[in-house]
UniProtKB/TrEMBL annotation:
<feature type="binding site">
    <location>
        <position position="176"/>
    </location>
    <ligand>
        <name>substrate</name>
    </ligand>
</feature>
<feature type="site" description="Transition state stabilizer">
    <location>
        <position position="239"/>
    </location>
</feature>
<keyword id="KW-0067">ATP-binding</keyword>
<keyword id="KW-0547">Nucleotide-binding</keyword>
<keyword id="KW-0418">Kinase</keyword>
<dbReference type="InterPro" id="IPR004662">
    <property type="entry name" value="AcgluKinase_fam"/>
</dbReference>
<feature type="domain" description="Aspartate/glutamate/uridylate kinase">
    <location>
        <begin position="11"/>
        <end position="257"/>
    </location>
</feature>
<comment type="pathway">
    <text>Amino-acid biosynthesis; L-arginine biosynthesis; N(2)-acetyl-L-ornithine from L-glutamate: step 2/4.</text>
</comment>
<dbReference type="GO" id="GO:0005524">
    <property type="term" value="F:ATP binding"/>
</dbReference>
<keyword id="KW-0963">Cytoplasm</keyword>
<dbReference type="GO" id="GO:0005737">
    <property type="term" value="C:cytoplasm"/>
</dbReference>
<keyword id="KW-0055">Arginine biosynthesis</keyword>
<comment type="function">
    <text>Catalyzes the ATP-dependent phosphorylation of N-acetyl-L-glutamate.</text>
</comment>
<feature type="binding site">
    <location>
        <begin position="51"/>
        <end position="52"/>
    </location>
    <ligand>
        <name>substrate</name>
    </ligand>
</feature>
<dbReference type="GO" id="GO:0003991">
    <property type="term" value="F:acetylglutamate kinase activity"/>
</dbReference>
<dbReference type="InterPro" id="IPR036393">
    <property type="entry name" value="AceGlu_kinase-like_sf"/>
</dbReference>
<protein>
    <recommendedName>
        <fullName>Acetylglutamate kinase</fullName>
        <ecNumber>2.7.2.8</ecNumber>
    </recommendedName>
</protein>
């Protein structure tokens, strides 16, 4: 705990994948317990969550076929409705339930609320893993603003803001946003000491099928080389690319960490590289 107290008054941002919300007791015992420890050490915490598995399941129930491009979900009007139901409904309530079990005062909403996250529609752009032509992802947003003062007021009032990854523009148009993108932008604007990207994956693996090949630390140059050589691939590419961009904007360290064992997140916060992959600026 003494190491955590070195960050008293600073922000930690935690991003959790939607798959983690499917097991509330497990989420409470791992991420919830770590967030509670952060709060006890005087650290401000914000949490961002996705909802990919829940959205995919709901799409299929509605007879819609999910479309993925370079690890990202294509969002048409029907898919946006599914994302609203999944992120603001099912996942939000499940995360709130898990955090309540852990004694965390979570205020769960989305980036649309009170203009917490301002976004604009993403223009077509070339994406790693999707060929040379620009890709249009539909009603997907880029984060252009974060209401830092609102986050601070919520923290001062004793709450942990927990946001589903939706944002909107000044005309009230909502956009689906990759949760890693929201988390990295929020962390950068808050001047976070640490950003944790938590999922079922225990870090960046040299062999995606072998957890023992986890890379404990990566510099930006090393990470780019791993992408170019194909070691980092699929959905991990946008996660790593967002991380590298945000290291340049002031986040001191970014950690990709798994949910197992339950103490993984807390131990990674105390000893970077011990339980996940830590991205360092050097």
């Amino acid at each position: 705990m003494s190491g955590l107290r070195d960050f008293r008054g600073r922000w930690f941002v935690v991003k959790i994948g939607g798959e983690l919300a499917q097991d509330r007791p497990r989420l409470a015992a791992s991420v919830g317990a770590a967030v509670r420890a952060f709060l006890d050490a005087g650290i401000r915490v914000a949490v961002i969550h996705g909802g990919g598995p829940q959205a995919t399941e709901l799409q299929k129930k509605l007879g819609l076929q999910p479309r993925m491009v370079a690890g990202r979900r294509y969002t048409d009007e029907a898919t946006l409705e599914v994302m609203k139901m999944s992120l603001a409904g099912q996942v939000s309530v499940d995360v709130a339930s898990a955090f309540r079990l852990a004694g965390v005062p979570a205020l769960c909403t989305t980036g649309m609320s009170a203009g917490l996250i301002t976004a604009e529609r993403r223009p077509p752009k070339v994406m790693s893993g999707a060929g040379p032509e620009p890709v249009d992802l539909g009603l997907v947003g880029d984060v252009v603003g974060v209401d830092v003062e609102a986050f601070r007021r919520l923290s001062d009032a004793g709450f942990v803001p927990v946001l589903g990854s939706l944002g909107g523009d000044g005309r009230g148009q909502p956009f689906n946003i990759n949760a890693d993108t929201v988390a990295t932008r929020v962390a950068a604007k808050l001047g976070a000491a640490k950003l944790f990207l938590v999922s079922n994956v225990p870090g960046v693996l040299a062999n995606k099928d072998d957890p023992s090949t986890r890379l404990p630390t990566l510099t930006p140059a090393e990470a780019r080389e791993k992408i170019a050589s194909g070691v980092i691939q699929g959905g991990m590419i946008p996660k790593v690319e967002e991380s590298l961009e945000m290291l340049e904007e002031g986040i001191e360290a970014i950690h990709i960490v798994g949910i197992s064992p339950p103490e993984a997140l807390l131990h990674e916060a105390e000893r970077p590289g011990s339980q996940g992959t830590a991205f360092l600026r050097g």
